[in-house]
Amino acid sequence: ILCTGVTDVQPHIQGTIETVFDYANAQTIDYCLICDGHHVLGKRTVIIGNENSSAWNAIMLHERYGCPEMTILTNGKESNFQKETQKLVDLYNIRVLTSPIKEIQGEDKGKILKGFLLEDGNVIQAEMSFVSLGMIVYNELAKQLGAEVDERGFVIGNETGLTSVSGLYVAGDLKANTRKQIYTAWDNAVSAATAINLIIRTKKRNQLLT
Ligand SMILES: Cc1cc2nc3c(=O)[nH]c(=O)nc-3n(C[C@H](O)[C@H](O)[C@H](O)COP(=O)(O)OP(=O)(O)OC[C@H]3O[C@@H](n4cnc5c(N)ncnc54)[C@H](O)[C@@H]3O)c2cc1C
């Protein structure tokens, strides 16, 4: 059973990803809307990202929690939003700023976020933020074994996790079309282990019967 997972892409600020480390997963710079979205309640919020999915993170948080201010920082990149998405961004008064981030402003080793200083001199005050730059999928082993992956690199498996390669199962975040959550990882790992166990028991039983 392959379950090598994924990792979130980190933003480069001052030329390094280390700038975010103090804040990462400290409920000041987070990554998963399902896990930590509720922390935006009553807080000015920033989304770091320039893709359509980044804008959708801002839209979803606005719709779910109605945070007082929502800003998308593209960190020096052009925004890549679809027309319909841009329309919602405008309707919800979500600001989109493209200047690179120069500095994260906060206190107490990342436990308190105050805002982001941009290279154009603007300071965006915010108490909460999410990084939305996509994921690195650890699929090298799966690909080496010839397993089929989807367009984002997730390994395709059936309901038991069986991949396109006989005897190779996939579980957890690596599996295509699953919620990237602990309970789904457990659930499809159990499905894969149960399927493998059934194959082994059936083989042994059939040997006894012949
Ligand atoms: C910050 C954060 C907060 C989260 N909060 C929640 C939450 O509140 N609730 C929730 O349900 N989910 C949450 N999640 C998601 C949850 O952690 C994942 O869905 C879950 O860990 C997936 O389990 P997994 O076993 O598939 O992958 P992982 O837990 O990522 O484990 C994969 C392992 O494979 C290893 N690996 C990768 N490549 C190789 C290789 N080539 N050889 C050997 N080992 C390798 C990795 O080092 C890693 O240890 C959160 C995730 C993050 C990042």
Written description of the protein model:
- By secondary structure, the protein is of the alpha/beta class.
- It has two domains: 7-131, FAD/NAD(P)-binding domain (3-Layer(bba) Sandwich), CATH 3.50.50; 139-209, FAD/NAD(P)-binding domain.
- Helix content is 29%, strand content 19%.
- It contains five helices and ten strands, in the order ββαβαβαββββββαα.
- The strands form three sheets. It has a five-stranded parallel sheet, covered by helices on one side. A three-stranded antiparallel sheet has the order 6-7-8, with no helix packed on it.
- Strand 7 (112-118) and strand 8 (123-125) form a beta hairpin.
- The two termini are 30 Å apart.
- Bound molecules: flavin-adenine dinucleotide (FAD).
- The site of flavin-adenine dinucleotide has 17 residues, from helix 5.
- The site of flavin-adenine dinucleotide (FAD) has 17 residues, from helix 5.
If you compute it from the alpha carbons, what radius of gyration comes out, rounded to the nearest whole angstrom?
21 Å
CATH level 1 class label of the largest domain: Alpha Beta
Helix percentage range: 25-40%
Examine the coordinates and then state which fold CATH places here, giving the name of the CATH topology of the largest domain: FAD/NAD(P)-binding domain
Ligand species: flavin-adenine dinucleotide
What would you say the CATH architecture of the largest domain is?
3-Layer(bba) Sandwich
Structural class: alpha/beta
Percentage of β-strand residues: 15-25%
What is the global morphology? elongated
What are the segments in which pLDDT stays under 50 over at least 5 consecutive residues? none
Question: Separation of termini?
Answer: 30 Å
What can be said about the biggest beta sheet?
Answer: 5 strands, parallel
- Number of E-state strands: 10
Q: What would you give as the CATH superfamily of the largest domain?
A: FAD/NAD(P)-binding domain
Strand order of the largest sheet: 2-9-3-4-5
The average pLDDT is 97
Query: SSE string, helix = H, strand = E?
Result: EEHEHEHEEEEEEHH
